[in-house]
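Hi U.,

Before I forget, here's the chain from the pilot set. I'm dumping it here mostly so it's searchable later in email.
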Amino acid sequence: MPAHRKEKLAKELQRVIGGILQTELRDPRVGFATVTRVVPSVDLQFAKVFVSVLGDEAATKRSLDALQHARGFVKALLEQRMKVRQVPDLLFVHDPSIEGAIRISKLIDEAVGEAKEERDEAANETERDENTEPPGGPARKDSHAT
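Structure:
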């Protein structure tokens, strides 16, 4: 199968599976799960469905277990909604990329906040220095009568 057809199938699987998880799957163990990408095998018999789950490690494990349990249901809905000869067997896999991006974003926010605090402190110091008189009183201008 040409690469562009495989990519098109992957995008369509991602869209349809994402919709199923949001609207059709009623398992309370599945938390806020988002399908981040789908990678079909070369022969299209299988597809890895990468899922990002909002929550801690226990919530992620519960959600993935529930998704594995519901994969037959999801596949049956895919067969009804997609116009392909054979819908691949699904394997749900945790995708940690979103958590990594959130962690990096928090680190950047912290660094920006620290830099802003340092800038503010430096500006306040400069302002204090400008407002204090030098020892010996205020500076005088020498005025000579001509």
